Input
Amino acid sequence: MTTIDEYQQRCEQMFVAGGNGAVRRAAQAGLDELGPSPDLYCWLALGHAAEDDDEHDDYAEEAFRAGLALDGDHLGLLAGYAELCLRADSFEYPGRAARAVTLAKHLKQLAPQSAEADRLAAAERWAQRGYWDDLRMRAAAAAVAGRDTEAQARALAVDLRHGDEAATREMNVEDRDAVVRAATLKALSGPWNAPVRFLGRHRTTVWALSGILCFLTNTVLRQTGVVDSFSAWGFLWALPVFIVDRRFAAIRRQAQAQHIATLETALDARS
Output
């Protein structure tokens, strides 16, 4: 029999790896084998809530409620449920949004100095963000994605210089970075992918040049009377870089899914 601690450890590993579906499967397997447990209901709920989808939010709320019915003072359940309620649209889900206040108050009374209380405070600050905060967060996320693309492209250039087997030799299939690197090498090697690799390595510079060219093209089109205002044709310079970004991001997603599947299989084999 697998213990609750082992199921929790598996859930944590999969959650850190970004395998929300695997977290749900592990938590449900533990509930099926060991019976109701507030800890496993917490992981099941978090696996749903992390999807940030209306249907999954409904399942997450069911799991949070089931867990709190067993242990009304469980800090993880209180914090997670409060976060879910803070994220809810007050017009579409008024009841869920209103429950955030009660849950937060209970958690702060139980353990005001806990890590869960700190997490809840961060969620409350997020819920109170303004329009400009949203813009800054989106800009920061775009910057991180851009750095990921450049790092991925530069690692690919190194692997190509060392031969086609550089990234796969002695690769640990449970290492996400190694799996992503090997998948990138497999998908983007070959001379026909040279433009993609070049644009990826110099993404920041190419984006800046694309922006300048877009502005100049639109200016010329307006001054020559071809268009009356800014035209979509002027923004075609940005299309190649956008395609490259999507290509690298798709490879990352596929490789990460492969990594999660491999990790889940390895954990199942050990249990």
Summary: DSSP finds twelve helices and no strands in the chain.
